[in-house]
Every structure is written in structure tokens, then in C-alpha cells.
Write a structure and sequence with these properties.
It is a single chain. The protein contains three helices and no strands. The protein is an all-alpha fold. The protein has one domain. The chain is rod-shaped.
């Protein structure tokens, strides 16, 4: 066995196996280093990407809060206007109620004057009284409906203007 260890073939084989083992070990170490370098690059890319995403999320959050604040301000202003319009509608309704009372008083006076009048043409007098009643009722109802329509028109106008302001603020800021 000692002779085999001293033979040139054994020594060459031993040197060759040592050389191959060292080469493989060096190759593996180089591959490990290359893999480590790429892992670090990917990790840094992931960190940079996360930072950019967080900054974008923060900017988007700030913009959304600004828009929501603007919407809240417009909504509050619109609610104040609607409250003012409701108050004005109540005042108009009160005035309208006074008008209806005046119409009813006038209608009662006309009825009384028609009833006290002694005429031969009672059917003409009755037709006139019915016409006056119908016109008074029509005026009363139309006045009441006009108040309802005006209140709804005010509410719709204010809501529409608020919607336009919100839309315009979004459009102007998105450009």
C-alpha cells in the first residue's frame, strides 16, 4: 500500500482530485457570493419599492382628506342655504296662509251679500256664488302648490349648486 501512495499516478490523481475539489469549492463559493449579491439587490429593490408605495399612499390619503374636507364644507354651506330656504318658505307659507284667510273672508262676505240680496234671478246669483267659490278655492290651492313647488325648486337648486361645486373642485384638482 505504501508503494501505491508513492507512485506517480497516485500523486497525480491526488493532485488532480485536490485541484478539482478546490475548483468546485471555489466555484460554489463564487455562486454563493453571486446569489447573495442578487438577493441583496432584490431586497434593496423591494425596500425602495415599499418606500415609494408608502409615499404614494400618503400623498393619496392627504389628497382624499383635502377633497373630503372640501366636500364637507360645500355640504355644510348647502345645508345652511337649505335651512335658510326652508325658513323663507315657512315665512312665505305664513304670508300665503294670511292670503288664504283673506280670500275666505272675501268669499264669506260675497256669500252673505248674495244671500241678503233679494232678486228674481236667484239662479244667476247662485251661479255667480259658485263661480266665486270655485275661483277662491282654485286660488287657494294654486297658492299652496306654488309654495310647495317653490320650496322644492329652492332645495333642488341649492343641491345642484353644491354638486357642481364639488364636481368642479375635483375636476380642477385632477388636471
Amino acid at each position: 500500500m505504501l508503494n501505491i501512495m508513492r507512485s506517480p499516478v497516485f500523486i497525480v490523481a491526488l493532485l488532480l482530485s485536490s485541484f478539482i475539489s478546490g475548483g468546485l469549492l471555489g466555484y460554489q463559493r463564487g455562486e454563493d457570493n453571486k446569489e447573495l449579491i442578487w438577493k441583496n439587490r432584490w431586497l434593496q429593490r423591494d425596500i425602495d419599492e415599499t418606500i415609494v408605495i408608502k409615499k404614494l399612499e400618503s400623498a393619496i390619503r392627504v389628497e382624499e382628506q383635502r377633497r373630503q374636507k372640501e366636500v364637507n364644507e360645500v355640504t355644510e354651506y348647502a345645508n345652511q342655504q337649505i335651512s335658510a330656504a326652508k325658513y323663507a318658505a315657512k315665512r312665505a307659507d305664513s304670508a300665503s296662509e294670511q292670503l288664504r284667510k283673506q280670500i275666505n273672508k272675501l268669499r264669506s262676505r260675497i256669500h252673505e251679500s248674495e244671500q241678503t240680496r233679494v232678486t228674481t234671478a236667484s239662479s244667476t246669483s247662485e251661479a255667480r256664488a259658485q263661480s266665486i267659490d270655485m275661483l277662491a278655492q282654485l286660488l287657494t290651492e294654486s297658492d299652496k302648490m306654488a309654495g310647495i313647488f317653490a320650496a322644492e325648486a329652492d332645495r333642488a337648486r341649492i343641491a345642484g349648486q353644491a354638486c357642481e361645486k364639488i364636481y368642479d373642485s375635483i375636476e380642477n384638482n385632477s388636471k
